[in-house]
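Why predict the complex rather than its parts? Because the way molecules touch one another can change local conformation, and only a joint prediction can capture that. The input here totals 522 residues.
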Amino acid sequence: MISMKNVYKKYPNGIVAINGINIEINQGEFIYVVGPSGAGKSTFIKMVYREEFPTSGDIFVNGINFAKLKSKQVPYLRRQIGVVFQDFKLLPLLNVYENVAFALEVTEQSPKVIRKHVMEVLDLVGLKHKARMFPTEISGGEQQRVSIARSIVSTPKVMIADEPTGNLDPETAWDIMNLFEKINRRGTTIIMATHNKEIVNTIKHRVIAIEGGLVVRDELGGDYGYEA
Amino acid sequence: MKLRTVGRHFRESLKSLSRNGWMTFASASAVTVTLLLVGVFVMIMMNLNKVAEDLEKDVEIKVLVELTAEKTEISQLEQDIKSVNGVANIVYSTKDAELENLIKDFGENMGLSDQNNPLRAAFYVKAQVPQETKKVADQISRLENTHSVEYGEGKIEKLFSFLNGARNVGIVLIAALLFTAMFLISNTIRITILARKREVEIMKLVGATNWFIRFPFVLEGMWIGILGAILPITIITFLYYNLYKIIQPYLEGEFFNLLPLTPFLYQINGLILLMGVFIGIWGSFMSVRKFLRV
Ligand SMILES: Nc1ncnc2c1ncn2[C@@H]1O[C@H](COP(=O)(O)OP(=O)(O)OP(=O)(O)O)[C@@H](O)[C@H]1O
Ligand SMILES: [Mg+2]
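Output of the joint prediction:
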């Protein structure tokens, strides 16, 4: 469902972040993207939700050819992809419920449908009882769960996470991973860039290692492979 | 776009106005200052224009007829004047009528009577286009049996050129003011948006279309424009109302007047509100544009 062919990305400042990548990812897979700092993991991830556009090469997501995707259509693509970040990216002036509902409001759904979906995902991430609280009033782990709820509320086929546990203590990180597993079992493809050796080595999934903008390793159930 | 989405945008824009209290205040103040200046300017310009039009309408050529002219020659002259290019209308006034006018203006004690009337009969001629008065007068003066032609030479031309100049300067100044205001507003709104870059970023992330993102900001600009117009409208109304009450009595009976309170106050206040809304919307539109480019 996601495929990259000879993808190459050079930033305007001349840095070549991705130097010819070929990848096929199937529906329902769980993928760790690992590699040293500056290897190009975030750039790779950004290209999947078309935050960055490849300098050359082809990218297909859900059968959509990015090269042919007009910028006007990008919002509709984004609705098919959930994104989670290290820094949560919640809106501080909106409460938990509103932060999640936000992702559905932009799709102009009816308030009834929005309410139903939001309560469902808040239940899934275990935050139904904190729906009226504001981001500053809940813990980092809870904030990340809110952002995960937001990313899946529009039931995307794929979820992308760039170091989702990067800002969390180990125990909370495991909570988040359990949640990811739950989401993955529902059939959602997950692509997660991470530096967390323990997680990668414990919950085994396909590992794609990137170094210097190239895929240097791609194995099912692989290890993290770097010193943490 | 669905109706409830529009409703949402209205709510959002109002919320954001109060959330960004100080920025709202700053932007609205910029609008206020500009609209006040432009308002006062337009007020002066429109009245000058009115006075100019009144004066233009009043310009006429007085053609004095030779004393020796016979009745038939006078009616011949009338025909001749009528056939001059650009003449709008012509009124004949006998020497007796002229004397009566003079006595009406200056009183009986001048020792003049019907028996020793030194005045000449006259034609009062209006040009179709007031600015063409000089040309028409020149042509008439060349006709037979005209003694002389008066139309306030020089003075009239100077007045016209002054009014024209004032109008042009006014238009340029208003344009410059509006431009400055838009620049100011687009800058202040840019700062508001900068503060909400994160919000825009997240909106894009979850798949908001550009219009969905833009709409609340544009509405916010509109509110700022409306807020900014309140004070100028109040001040202009108060100012013009009082000016009119003070000045107009002196102009009673003159051939030029100020613009009457209604509809002028409605017109100028409507214009101020419209300009406020326009620069508000335009300003925010311009500043959001930059953030939506991906
Ligand atoms: N917007 C940008 N403009 C220019 N260069 C960039 C940009 N983003 C990233 N880079 C460069 O591209 C290279 C890859 O960066 P990237 O963020 O993809 O690395 P990463 O693998 O995610 O690193 P980390 O593990 O530290 O997050 C780096 O050399 C970086 O400096
Ligand atoms: Mg990164």
